[in-house]
Design brief:
eight-stranded antiparallel barrel; 10 strands; alpha+beta; 24% helix; Alpha-Beta Plaits
Length: 191
Amino acid sequence: MLRTVYVRYKNAFERTDAEDCARYLSELLRLNAYRPNFRFFLIVAENRMFAVGSVDDEKSEQWRLMEFRYIKDDNFRPYFLYLAPFNFWAGEYSAILYGGILGRVKRERPALPLNFCLLPIDLELTEGEREAGATKEAIWDIFDVRYADGTATIRPLLSDETALMVVRLRDFSVSELYNHLANFVAEVFGQ
């Protein structure tokens, strides 16, 4: 079920964003390799990554998905993530006009739930919205990860729809898997 979001902030010790993303991807694959089948999405933003789906990661903050709505447009590609502790009406209207993903998450730490919008357009937050806690993050890419019968298929959804990586986990050591993933993600990010 895609009911939990695992949030991990960028690692300051990694040399590149591709290496940071590859390390998190390889950890998530290794942690879940005991399952016969699973699927998750890894949303890579400017300052953090969001793993959505059947993953189990103790190093990340967990957010529970409370509400989820998907308003589809034929060309919808979610390039921006907006988070706000209030109803973000500009995001709602934009999703209706251009497509988007809307919902609410409950954070692990005691805090108000957050409303979120994944949108294809760049909205400028007002000073009042920023002061009230609203944030905007550019989405670098979203990796769709599917694992079945020992084989992981990884596809970036925003940058290159034809790029694809297929790995049999049992054929690689931890470091080999990380190196392959780092090279793949670097190509996707153009690093």
